[in-house]
Amino acid sequence: MVFPNGFIAYGYLVLNTDIPTLIDTGSGYGRSNDDLLAGIAAVQEQFGEKMSIQDIGRVIITHGHVDHFGGLTHVLEAAGGAQVGIHPLDRRVLTNYEERVVVATKNLTIYFQRAGVSPERLPQLLDMYGFSKKHFRSIHVDFMLQEGDEIDGMRVYHVPGHCSGQIALLIDDILISADHILPRTSPHLAAESITHYTGAGHYQESLQKILNIPGIRLTLGGHEEPLEDVYSRTRQLQERLNAKLDRIMDIIRAAAQPMTISDISKAMYVDKHGFDVLLALQEAGAYIEYLYDRGYLAIENLEDFEHDHNPALLYTVL
After folding, report:
1. What is the DSSP letter of 147?
2. Cα Rg of the chain, angstroms
3. Contact indicator for 316, 298 with CB cutoff of 8 Å
4. Rounded distance, CA 207 to CA 204, Å?
5. For residues 249 and 318, what is the distance between their CA atoms, to the nearest angstrom?
6. Distance from CA of residue 284 to its chain's centroid?
């Protein structure tokens, strides 16, 4: 359990390699570290594998979200040290974490202002964003994992969209997809103006990349249950992405006046509260950016954008 609200994430042990490898480390919150160490101990107790936490010599982080890397310091201390690897686009999240939080928060502030979030609402949203960013400290990274790399039989695929440096790992006919493809949930997307290499366009390309990999028998995600038919699920996610793009176009067309991202988010994601409001604003922005970049939308108040400091943008259909 990576967060106290019952949210569960998975780490994976790979033992058919020269170096026993742990993929992802949980969040480090609440009972997350204890659950992770108990799971590693169960490999010997329940399955008879002769290994312990001290045998782990390598840790791979699939992407730079705290529910997947937040327990890294605890794992390294318990293991007595290990080599740490991550994709270059998420390397800074680990090696210069404090700077990354400041820059991301600044980008998010600018984004929320352009999205039409009121000055009264803005501090609350930023506080919610920062709540999970305070317990981790920068840590050394030993190696990079890039598209096409192979390490001990694990082939690396760079699949950005949900996160800039999101990777999937193919081991024989098993795909460890992390958060890229989940059996029941569409991974959260955020606007690329907040963090480069996120967003709907990159996610769309990354979904197609999975369809081009032959012979995947089983997919293990960072959340939810194992998935046996990743190809059908990937096509479902493509259809869902396109449906959301169509839904946003319909919302704007039906409006009597141009709309902000905040307006569109409220119309698209009704009855959201708390942290879900923040996620909805980010996700609506990802789709609006996609449509704007491809010429489907225009900024109605372009003169305000030209002359004012950072006004809320009003979108209309071209």
Report:
1. T
2. 21
3. yes
4. 5
5. 10
6. 15
CATH of 12-103+132-238, one of 3.60.15.10, 3.40.630.10, 3.40.50.2000, 3.50.50.60: 3.60.15.10
35: left (phi over 0), alpha (psi -120 to 50) or beta: alpha
Q: H or E element: which one contains 167?
A: strand 167-171
CB atoms inside a 10 Å sphere around CB 91: 19
Are 135 and 28 within 8 A, CB to CB? yes
Closest of 230, 70, 85, 205 to residue 156, by C-alpha: 85
178-231 tens-digit pLDDT: 999 999 999 999 999 999 999 999 999 999 999 999 999 999 999 999 999 999
For CA atoms 114, 117, 120, 123, the dihedral sign is negative
Provide mean pLDDT across the span 25-29: 92
Q: Which H or E run contains 27? A: none
- The answer to whether 94 touches 118, Cβ cutoff 8 Å, is no
pTM higher than the cut 0.85: yes
Alpha helices in 116-219 (DSSP H): 122-130, 200-211
